[in-house]
Amino acid sequence: MTSTAGSTGASGATGPGAFPYKLVATDLDGTLLRSDETVSARTRDALAAVTEAGAAHIVVTGRAVPWTRHVLDELGYQGLAVCGQGAQVYDAGEHRLLTSVTLDRQLAGLALAKIEAEVGPLLLAASRDGLDGDVLVGPGYRRLEGALPVVPLKDAADLWSAPLNKVYVQHPTLSDDELAAVAVKVAGGLVGVTMAGPGVVELLPLGLSKATGLSLAARRLGVKAADTIAFGDMPNDLPMFAWAAHGVAMANAHADLKAIADEVTASNDEDGIAVVLERLLTRP
What we know:
The structure is a single chain. The protein has helices spanning 28-32, 41-52, 65-75, 105-119, 176-187, 210-221, 238-243, 255-260, 272-282, and strands spanning 23-26, 56-60, 80-83, 88-91, 96-100, 123-128, 135-137, 151-152, 164-170, 192-197, 200-204, 228-232, 246-249, 263-264. The protein is an alpha/beta fold and 284 residues long. Strands 5-4-3-2-1-12-13-14 form an 8-stranded mixed beta sheet. Strands 8-7-6-9-11-10 form a 6-stranded mixed beta sheet, with helices on one face. Strand 4 (88-91) and strand 5 form a beta hairpin.
């Protein structure tokens, strides 16, 4: 799936039958990727047709660059990617980090203390900044099955020993929605809080979201929010949907995202992105 996002002027064709957007923004997990972490031939073809029509494609993911770049390389993706919930803008073709925002570790520590004072001890992980930043995983933190590399966190002090993009939190008994709600209530003035997937509640730099990262990347391409269609599946995609002209939730999406989406398409395992792009490409 070769993207021209890094080189297209995103001028977009006009006239009857033209693709109506200059930018297609796709989340990665649960959206562009199927459950087996592949992209179907149908979706690849639809995205290729979109870029041939003059639009740009940008991947917008909660994963930090070290957990994203191998996927982009395997896909042959050459354009820009927004990673780390908007913290990083990454040039996949040049393997270069263009922008990066880090979490204020003092504020993050205070936020954690406030949350734990409310709900008790948390299970922690963290994503270090940079192209090769480690993901630290503390005792008891539940990881999804898969081969994404992590470094065990043996000493709690090591959590704060280097710049971070985000801190992951879990609770032994609270659901993701419950934990996120508490975190927003007691620490929302210190850090951003988002839910990116099952078991993935994150503390971010205050004000950071996929929308902020996407707007930076779009500006590099000379594209505006009004020219953008976005695809996603989780609450961390809410700001991106609010920014873009048209938000499309996958059938497997969280109820909160479906509630504000402009439309709901098929699931990530049923080529939901391709279903919408093919319709737009062939409309009268």
